[in-house]
Amino acid sequence: MKPQVLERMNDAHGPIEVIEQGGEVALQFGNPTAQSAWRPEQPEQLCFAYYRAMMLPLALHPHPARIGLLGFGGGVLAKFLLEHTESSIHAVDLRPALGPIAARHFGLDLDHPRLDLRFADVSSPDWEPTAPLDVVLIDLFDQDGMIRLPDETVARLNAAIAPGGIICLNLWRNHMPAVVEAHRQLSAHFHPDALVAHVPDKLNTVMTYRREAWQPGDLENGLRRLTQESAPLRRAQAQAWQWLQPLRGQRR
Question: pTM to 2 decimals?
Fold first, then answer.
């Protein structure tokens, strides 16, 4: 089936396209890599497997009341979290054009009372994250791949995360220098033994950090919390749980 272009435009940062194919609506930045996607006929299902992996921190935190999103895309994760959690969502992206696109093509209610959406350059020394945050989810990509955050931005994120908070990021394993650099940056503020989830048959790896070392009891508590989640969130987390790598010193 030939892709149908639903919208095409350019902003100050380059092209933006919304494509529909086989019932899936995807956001692209001028190349075939999908930056966001959803199926309007299956709104409770997260299309991307790495989206599901990024739901794991919500089970690992005892009460993620305030969630930060760095990288908004089409607003798919924001929409899912607003619909299936009681958390407030504090999202930031560089490109203001993405807000109306998220509303037109990805079903996001921009006026939702628990949504705080801002457009800013998180690499700028003037940017300050919303605080405090219990969980931060980082999914920063452009048409060229992963976006490197300055050390100063990572330090500001660390200061914004509440005690017991978690930071999680999506990485591409085929860009290993960027993966190593991201780990170096986060290890300067958080315990270096991150929880790692490799997405099967994809190049995505989702890494989850906190200030204290992860313990087997944290995973046991997380599994118990899964039973308390809404069904769509529980399904996403349960699948992604199988992708978690053993903690250091443990065997499966």
Answer: 0.95
